[in-house]
## 1
Amino acid sequence: MSLEALRDALPDYARDLRLNLGTLATEPALTQQQRAGTFIACALASRNAIVSRAILAEFGPQLSAEALEAAKGAAAIMGMNNIYYRFTHLVGADYPNMPAKLRMNIIGKPGVDKVDFELWSLAVSAINGCGMCMESHDKVVKHGGLGSEQVQAAVRIASVVHAVAATLDGEAAMAA
């Protein structure tokens, strides 16, 4: 499935999502690698097979093999970290001071430019709702030279990809 087919699969009430997918596919604030990796990481984080396949087909060829693995890795590691760090942040007590004792090697050696990996991690963290992770990744990308416009672009991609997945899931549930 292509991005165009994904857009066509959306119901009429989600026409804004169709338009936003088209616009964000060529978002000029991000490099091609940043944009493609953000789409892929967010698609995987959306947990919708149709969205993941369509976005991988559209944006996968725009990435090197290493960058594609890193984008997938950002979705995977944030799937774990967002749960853990959201818990420590919300519960507090002694938990924030305790070592996580979770392997996170990909963060130190993602296989691509650190700023791009952190941007993908930030976008996935927005989908997963981990404020602590969003703040942390925002600081890293800004320290790495990205500005608010690039961060906003990545989060806009995250919001639209997630909304597309939620809409398709909702439509499937109503049809069942």
Note: The chain has a mean pLDDT of 95.
## 2
Amino acid sequence: MSYEDMIEEELAIMREQLKESSTSLSPHEIRVPLRSLMHSPVTVEMETSTQEAIDLLITEKVGAVLVVADQVLKGIFGERDILYYILNKSVGDLTQIPVKRFMKADPHTAHVEDSLDTAVLDMAQGGYRHIPIVDDQNHPVGMVSIRHIISYLVGHFPQEILTLPPAPIRNAMKAREGA
């Protein structure tokens, strides 16, 4: 079977599955409050060294830390900041540079009562992967990431996700062909 035939066969299967699928998110599933999705925030002070913040990302296995001053959210520092502002750049000794130099100041935030649909829209429009959840005094109380949202969706639609074809066409072509 040629590569093009394999692609066409997989696409036909996917089209058929879409026709058969009647599952959609109900309003109560998409309007769930962020309180039920959020995880405890990992925070650092503004004067924390950038190296300490990076080490915390690794040890806590999170994609972003919240930067605070007197427990008030001032910024967010994450993996993208490392890629954009630090990696392959001559920035100096990261143990001596405060994280506030590389953080994104005044990040977009949400509240615990805001809903999942609002967070998804904000993330899509703003290109965010993390949204800090704050209280009325702008104190961080949680964090919602795209990973949390995907986990929520998998938990609510396991049948649809876990029954996907086991070997999509992309994985069928492991060995390279040609000269």
Note: The domain at 3-9+24-172 is CATH 3.10.580.10 (CBS-domain).
## 3
Amino acid sequence: MGAIVAVLAVFAPSGLGVREASMYGLLLAVVSEAVALGATVLNRLAITAVEAALLLGAVAARRRSDDRVERPAVASPGG
């Protein structure tokens, strides 16, 4: 449901809550207000958790790639 609403709300910036409001409104057609609100909040939390995991994965991958970069050898004195 969240993915469908994301396509419908593509015109608005992410932080405005348009996706969540649209999802809530669509869910009201088939479930009660409490269930619609709960599903909307859980959807937002799941999206945030996935984005945080992707960020942490990108940071870890970046650190690993920085460690693998070959550094030029420093010539020892007298050698």
Note: The longest helix spans residues 33-68.
